Amino acid sequence: MTTQTTTPQTPAKDTAGANTGLVAIPPHIGRALATGGGVLTVVSAFLAWTWTSAFPGDLTVYGYPGGLQVLVLIGGALTALFGLASYGVKGLRWLAPAGADSAIKLAALAAFATTWYTIAAMSAQLGGLANLEPGGWIAGIATLTALLGALSLPFERPAPDPFDPDDSSWEQFRHKARHQRTVVKAAFAAGTSKPARELPAFAEILVIVAALTLGLIVFTYGIGTEYDELFVGFLVTAGFGFAAAAKAGLVNRVSALTSKHRTVTMVGAFAAAAAFPFTQSDDQYATIGVYILIFATVALGLNIVVGLAGLLDLGYVAFLGVGAYTAAMVSGSPSSPFDLQLPFWASALLGAAVAMVFGVLIGAPTLRLRGDYLAIVTLGFGEIFRITVLNMDGTSGPDITNGSNGISSIPNLNILGFDFGQEHSFGGFTIARFANYFLLMLLITLVVVVVFRRSSDSRIGRAWIAIREDETAALAMGINGFRVKLIAFALGAALAGLAGSVQAHVTYTVTPEQYQFAHVVPPNSAFLLAAVVLGGMGTISGPLVGAALLYLIPAKLQFLGDYQLFAFGLALVLLMRFRPEGLIPNRRRQLEFHEEAEAPTVLSKAGA
Amino acid sequence: MTTDTTTKDAAPGATAPGETVLDARGVTMRFGGLTAVNNVDLTVNSGEIVGLIGPNGAGKTTFFNCLTGLYIPTEGEVRYKGQVLPPKSFKVTAAGVARTFQNIRLFANMTVLENVLVGRHTRTKEGLWSALLRGPGFHRAERASRERAMELLAFVGLDAKAEHLARNLPYGEQRKLEIARALASEPGLLLLDEPTAGMNPQETRATEELVFAIRDKGIAVLVIEHDMRFIFNLCDRVAVLVQGEKLVEGDSATVQGDERVVAAYLGEPFEDAPGSEEIAEVEAAEAQAAATDSAPGKENDR
C-alpha cells in the first residue's frame, strides 16, 4: 500500500518560503475545523446513512455504527485525537512525538476517503445520491471539512527551483509539476522525533503488548471482513491510519522498543498469532489463516535465499512441492505408491531432508551462475519439477506421483493421539480442523523465524550478505562463495520442504498444478518473490506482512475477477516506484535506495 | 593512528625476518593474443616492503590478480612460503595472502565492524549448525572475533566508527577499513593495490605510517603505487613493470637513477631535445614574466 495516493491538487499560491497550508484558510481556524470535523465524523458514524438495509452492513440504525461506519468512526477518532494532540492537550502528547500536523492530514484523509468511498459505493449500488439519509450527508460534510482544515495547516514549503527561461513550455510544465509534487510531499512530511522519555521496562513491554494486540485486532478484522466494500474500506482506513501513525512518529517509537526487547516481541507476536483461532467462532477464517501462514513461512524461507544471499530464485515453490509430495507419499494415503505411514515428526524431517537434497542437486550446477542467468535457470528447474511430477504417472514414466491427479485423500495428522481432523474444545473455545493446523503451522513458522534470525546474525550470515554486496571482494576475503551460496540454497529448500510437509495434510491433495511459477492462487514462485520484495528483503516481518496482504487481497476482492493479476501487477509497479525497499524495509536497504534522505549514519544492531 | 613498532603483538602469520614469503617465478598471463604479464619473477622476503611501479597499463594489477588467484597465470607458478598457491582467491586468502583493491571494494551496506568480521571468515570455523544451535563455542568464537576486529579497527584508527555503515565513511577511511579487513584474515603477506590513490598529502603520510606499522607486525607488504615519493620513502626494494615485463628491480636509488625507468615514464629524449642551457633560459624568462604579472594564469579562474 502506498501513501502516495492522489491528494487533492489544490492550487497553492507560489509564495516561496512562506509556511502556509495547501488550502488558504488561516491555520488556527483550520486546526479547529480539522479537530471539530473529526469529532463530528465520530458523531455521524452513529447516525443512519441510508434508509434501506440493501447496502451490506446495515447502515440504517441510529446509535449503533455498522460495517463501514466503524471504519469512518476510527478515521474520525484518529483525526480528532491527533487534532487535540496538536493543541498540546495533556495526556495526548505521547500520540505524536514527531509533530501532529502531518498525522492530522493523513488521518483526515483516511476518514474522508473511507466516507466518500462509502457514499460513492452506496449511490452506485442503490441508484443515486437520493438514497442517502441526513446522517450520510453529515458524515460527508464533516470529513470534507476536517480534510480542508487539515490541509490548511502550515508546513515548510520547499523553495521552487529556478527554471531555465529557454525551456519549452512542455519543459516548464514538467518543471512546475515536479515542484508541485515536492510541495505536496512536503505537506505530508514528518517532523523530527523528539527523544523518547525513558520508560520503565515493564511500561515498554506493555507498549509492545498493546501494539501487538492492536496488530492482532486489525488482522482479525481484515480477515473477517464479509463483503468487498468493507475490505476496501478496511484497506483504505488501515493504510492511511498506519501512515498517520508513522508520520506522527509512533511507528518509529514502537519499532525502537521492539528492537530493544526482541525476544519479548517475538514471544508476544507468536502469542498474538496463536490467539487468533480463539477469536474465531467457526473454521472459515482459520482456513485463510493457515494458508496465509504457509505462504508466509515459505516466503520467509525464500528471504534467506533472496534477501540475505542475494540469489534470485524463481523456482522456489518446487521445494515446497518436494516437501509436500514427500510427506504425502509417507502419509498412508491410498494413492501413494508406498504403503507407509510415518509419524508427523518423521515425515516433516523427511520432507525437509528430501527438499534439501533437491536443493543441493539443483544448486550445485546452477549456483556457478550469477544474477539474471541464475534466475532463468532456477525458473527452468522449477518447471522441470512440475513437469516431471506430472509425467510420473505410470504411462509416460514410472508410477510414483500419480500424474495430474496427484496424491489425494491424505489422512489428517495425529500427533500423540491428538487428531487434527477433529474439533477440540479448550475451556469453552472450540478449535476445529483448520485451527489445529494453524497452530501446528505456527510452530513451523516459529522454527523458520528462529533459523532466519540466528543464521543471519552469524559468521555464515555475514558471508551471505558479503556475497550479495560484492562477490569478488567476498572471495578475496576468503569466503568460499560457492559453498556458502549452496548452504543458503539448501537451507532455504529445507525450510520450504518443512512447510510443504504440513501443507500436504492441510490441502488433503497434492497435485502438480499447485507448484507452478505463476498461478492465480498463492503460493507460487512469482507470488513468493513478490511477497518478499513487497514486504521487504532481508527482514523477518516483511515477508510475513507481504504474504498476508498478497493472500488477503485476491481472496477478498472477488469483484476484481479476471483483473486480479492486472491489479496485482499495477500495485507492484506503484510500490516499486514509491517504496522500492518494501513495506517493512531493512535499514540497509533503506539506505541503499534513499541515499540522501534522512538516513541514519549509524546502523544499530537491530537493523539487520 | 598507532605507530607501535614493538613486535610482541606480531600477527600469527608472521615469519622470521629474511625468509622468502612470496616467490613468483616466470609468471606469464595472456589474454588471447595479448600478453599482459610476461615472465615476471618477484620475491618478497618477510619483514620487507616491496614496491611495484610502472606506467598505466603495465600489467601491475594483472600481476596482482595472478598472485591472489583471481587469474590463473598462463605460465609460471607462485609460491607462498614454499607452497604453490591454489588457483582460487578464497584459498589464497586462507593460505595467508590478503589484498586490497585499486577501486575500493568494501561491503558498502555493512557496518565497519561487520566488514572486518567478514575478513575473519577464514580464521573462524563456525558453520550453519553452530549458528543455529548457539552453543557456548559459538558465543566464544563470536566474542573472540569481535575483540580481534575491534583491535584491528583501533590499529587503523577506526574503532570509534565501528557501527557506521562502510558507505558513509570518508574516502581515506574507506581505504583504511579495506586494509583492516585484509588484516583480519591474519595474512603473512599483504598486497596493497594503490593504497593512496586519491588521497591528499596528509592522508598519504598517514598511510605510510600505517604500512610501516603493518610491517613491524611482521607482515610482508607488496604495494602498487603511482606516488613515487610514497614508494621511495616506504619500500626496501622496488620493481618496475613496463609493458608486462620486469625492467629493473633494486633499492630506491638504483631504480630512480635508471635511465630505462625514466624513459618508460617520460619517453625517450628525441633528436633535437632542448639541452639544459635552453631549459634554464626558458625558466628564467618564465620567472621574469611571473614577477611582472602578479598572478599569471589566475585571470582565467575568475
Automatic annotation (TrEMBL), chain A:
Membrane topology qualifier: Multi-pass membrane protein
Q: Which UniProt keywords apply?
A: Cell membrane, Membrane, Transmembrane, Transmembrane helix
Entry's InterPro entries? ABC_transp_permease, LivM-like
Q: Which GO terms describe its molecular function?
A: branched-chain amino acid transmembrane transporter activity
Residues of the signal peptide: none
**One Pfam family here:** BPD_transp_2
Superkingdom, natural source: Bacteria
> Where mainly found?
membrane
Annotated Gene Ontology cellular component terms: plasma membrane
Write out the transmembrane intervals: 32-52, 64-85, 106-124, 136-155, 201-224, 230-251, 263-279, 285-307, 314-332, 344-364, 371-389, 434-452, 486-506, 526-553, 560-578
Compartments reported by the entry? Cell membrane
Entry-linked PANTHER family: HIGH-AFFINITY BRANCHED-CHAIN AMINO ACID TRANSPORT PROTEIN BRAE, HIGH-AFFINITY BRANCHED-CHAIN AMINO ACID TRANSPORT SYSTEM PERMEASE
Q: What protein name does the entry list?
A: Branched-chain amino acid ABC transporter permease
Question: What organism is listed for this UniProt entry?
Answer: Streptomyces fructofermentans
The record lists the lineage as: Bacteria, Bacillati, Actinomycetota, Actinomycetes, Kitasatosporales
TrEMBL record, chain B:
Against CDD domains, the record matches this protein to:
ABC_Mj1267_LivG_branched (cd03219)
Q: Which GO MF terms are attached to this record?
A: ATP binding; ATP hydrolysis activity; L-isoleucine transmembrane transporter activity; L-phenylalanine transmembrane transporter activity; L-valine transmembrane transporter activity
| Region: Disordered, residue numbers | 273-302
Residue ranges, compositional bias (Acidic residues): 273-284
GO CC terms, sorted: plasma membrane
User: One matching Pfam family, short form?
Assistant: ABC_tran
Q: What PROSITE patterns does this protein map onto?
A: ABC_TRANSPORTER_2
What's an example Gene Ontology biological process for this entry? L-isoleucine import across plasma membrane
SUPFAM superfamilies registered for this protein in UniProt: P-loop containing nucleoside triphosphate hydrolases
Superkingdom as given in the UniProt entry: Bacteria
What are the alphabetically sorted keywords of the record?
A: ATP-binding, Nucleotide-binding, Transport
Provide the protein name.
ABC transporter ATP-binding protein
